[in-house]
Amino acid sequence: MLKNKIYKYLSNEILKSFITILFTFTAIAWVARAVNFLDFMVADGFSASVYFKYSVLNITTIMTRFIPLAFLLSLIFSVVKFEKQQELLILWTSGLNKIKIANIFILIAFFLTIFQLILSLFINPYLLNKSRSLLTNTDEFEIGTILKSNDFSDNFKGITFYISKKNTDNELIDIFIKDTSGSLGSIIGELDESKNLTILAKKGFVSNNKLVLFDGMMQSLNKKNEFKNIQFERTELSLFDLSTRIIKKPKVQETLSSTLLECVLNKNNNLKINNCTEENYKSVAVENLSRRLGVPLYIPLISIIVSFLLIYKKEKRFIFLKKYILFILSFFMLVFAEILLKYTGYSLSITISYFILPVVMSAILYIYLIKKITSEKQL
Prior knowledge:
Mean pLDDT: 81
Helix content: 55-70%
């Protein structure tokens, strides 16, 4: 009973450290990325609510990238902490089984592997796809933030805006608009069929998704290549049909895992995903699937490497260096996994090696760990 409480205490301490480190890294990275999001959100005229929702939907993706590193640091910190507080020495003298503690490390790693697989395979693609839909389907544009003084703006497809200046009341002065897409709807019916429209106005303002212009001229080119000029004192242009330059089709990382798998295996030739039939796209899809499935497999390997800290050595110098050596070795494995991941889409043998490597190394190191702990008992 006492031993079970000790094992539970060790597990709780490791998990507390893991959660603290993971949320710290995630918060820092999320804030940094949120600042980058803010730049392009303002540039594309999205509202604050869209910006907030989009940022929140990216949190789990950021968190997933830090799980292996956070687990490595939590194990190292926890073992070093127990060692400094003489807790490990007390545990060994009381006859606690080191293999049992190593198995606890591996068991925690197993649950974290399952957790990361669920995030990578299902939750992250779904939320990223939702964030893409949020940008492409929203009507909440703040066009006033896009139109800047003394600057050409081509954020919308086929339309160029130029505003000489904006006064304190957000009134636009000396406006130039070039529309080659026919997206701007005018209340003047004669211009409805125009696909090439130039508008000049002395001033205007944006209200309720309409651009209200005063004292200007419209020049249109109709289907017969005839120019037509119309003077106006006041007119309104509808902004509802404006289309931004944001990519509407989901990127590879935003595509559901099942869809990527079908694309890679060629089980469905009518997949409605971007460039599925292209070899380059398939290599990127393989790399993305490898990241979702393969990276979590390196977490148990980390737990086994760190478990070598449990082996006692008489030389104090070696004890001091051992934690740094094992940390560098574990960190190197994570870096190596990231490097190898980049080539998984180009070679089947590399892809297979990427998945087999952590399993084989885990088995070999675990057998060696048991041998070392057993031989330590016999001394």
